[in-house]
Amino acid sequence: MQISFELASVEAANDLKLYLNRLLRIDEGAVKLQISGDVLAVWGAAIWPKSITDPSPTALGLRTFRITPQESSTYEVGASLLSNSIADDGKVSLEVADTRLQAAWLGQTPPRADWELLGEITAAALENEAIDSANEVTDSTPLNSGALVVDKIRAAVWGSQSKTWDGPLPKAASFAMLALGFLSPLEKVTLFRSGSWLRLTSSRGHVLVKALVKSVD
C-alpha cells in the first residue's frame, strides 16, 4: 500500500526527522501513524515489555504535525523507512507492507479524551531523575551481563516510583521525556490522568505511561 502526504513546512519535516532519529537511537523499531484530517500523530516507544514475562513499563512518545488534509487512517511503519521517506520539501511517500509489525506496544491504545489535570513538574526535576536512574542502571549491571539480566535491571529501575510526583508515576516517564527531546530548560511539564494512563505534556511533545499499581501486602 502506498501512502503519501505533505508536511506543512520544511521546519516540520526537519522536526519529524529529529524525533524519528531519537526513537531510532533507542530501538530499530516501528512507529504508529494516525492521520485525522490535517493532523498527523506519530507514536513511538521509549520503553516497553519485550515479552509477556518482561515486567518493564510502557512509555510511549507522541508528536503531532500539520499535513495536507487526508482521510482518517492508521498505519504501522518502520521508523527508519519513514525517516528515509521524508523529502527536503516536506513531502512523504512510502510503501506500507500489508503484514502487521510485531512490536508489542503497537497494541496499546491510550485514551484520546477525558484527561484530568493533576499538576505540574519542572523539566529540571525530570531530567535529573532520568540521568540519575540511567546511572543506577549502569552501576547495578555487572560486567558481561546477558540481555536478560540487563532487561531485568532496567525494568526494576524504570518501573519504580518517580520521586518527581507524589503519585503512581514510573521513572520510565522521566527517561522518555529526556530521551525523546521533550524537555526544555526552565519549562514546567503538565501531568494528566485518564483511567490507567498518565500523560506528561510539554511544548515539545507528550509521553504516555501506564500508572503504577500499588501492591497489596
Radius of gyration: 18 Å
Largest sheet: 6 strands, antiparallel
The computed structural class is alpha+beta
Helix % is 25-40%
Total of DSSP H or I helical runs spanning 4+ residues: 5
Q: Percent of residues in beta strands? A: 25-35%
List the topology elements.
Layout: E1 2-6, H1 10-26, E2 30-47, E3 59-78, H2 79-84, E4 91-95, E5 116-122, H3 123-140, H4 147-158, H5 172-179, E6 188-194, E7 197-202, E8 205-210
Description:
By secondary structure, the chain is an alpha+beta fold. The chain folds into two domains: about 1-105, DNA Polymerase III, Chain A, domain 2 (Roll), CATH 3.10.150; about 115-210, no CATH class. The chain has helices spanning about 10-25, 80-85, 125-140, 145-160, 170-180; strands at about 1-5, 30-45, 60-80, 90-95, 115-120, 190-195, 195-200, 205-210. α3 packs antiparallel against α4. It is globular, with a radius of gyration of 18 Å. It contains five helices and eight strands. The strands form two sheets. A six-stranded antiparallel β-sheet has the order 2-3-8-7-6-5. The longest helix has 18 residues, at about 125-140.
Quick take:
The chain has 217 residues and is α+β, with helices and mostly antiparallel strands.
Keywords summarizing the entry:
single chain; 217 residues; alpha+beta; DNA Polymerase III, Chain A, domain 2; 2 domains; six-stranded antiparallel beta sheet; two-stranded antiparallel sheet; 5 helices; 8 strands; globular
